[in-house]
Structures are given as C-alpha cells and as structure tokens.
Amino acid sequence: MIVFAVLYLLALVAFLTGTFGWLGQERDPLSGVFLLPLGLPWILVADLFSDSAKPWFAAIAPVLNILALVFICRWARSLHQK
Fold first, then answer.
1. Which residue windows are transmembrane per the record (predicted)?
2. By residue range, what is the domain housing residue 29?
3. Mind giving me the DSSP string for 11-61?
C-alpha cells in the first residue's frame, strides 16, 4: 500500500509539473499518463465527466484505489484477529 501511495505521489507531481510548467518544464499534454494505470478501474467512468474535469478526475482516481486498499486491509486484519 505504501508503494502504491508513493507511485501515486510521483505520478501526481509529474502531472502537475507537466500541466502547469513548474520548475521550468514545458507544458506536456501527456504528463498525466502515469496516473491512468494507477486509477483503473475508475478511469473507465471518466467519460461521464466533462472534458475540462477529466484530467482532474484522473488525478484523484488513484485515491479511490488507496481508500479501497485501506478498507480491505482493515477488514482482513479484523478477520485475522477473530
């Protein structure tokens, strides 16, 4: 779970750096490509959002996976303690 969270943070920094041109980087429309595999399967419902909201949804979709992992780990831990 920690590895997934670190990968998400690195992909988010790459997305924000490429989107806003931080640190002297040129703006890159493909800067969010690393967020896509981390946000699956939620990325598949991105078509429900407007075109301007899609990049931001892609940026927060991995958070849904992190939350799912937290809940699964807590559930598994509670089963193990019984």
1. 6-23, 56-76
2. 2-81
3. HHHHHHHHHHTGGGPPP-TTTTTTHHHHHTTGGGGGGGS-TTTHHHHHHHH
In terms of C-beta density within 10 A (0-12 exposed, 13-18 middle, 19 or more buried), how is residue 35 classed? buried
Q: Is 1 helix (H, G, I), strand (E, B) or coil?
A: coil
Tell me how many domains the chain contains: 1
Q: How many CA atoms lie within 13 A of 23 on its CB side?
A: 7
- Regarding pTM above 0.85, the answer is no
Rounded-to-integer distance, Cα 32 and Cα 30, Å: 5
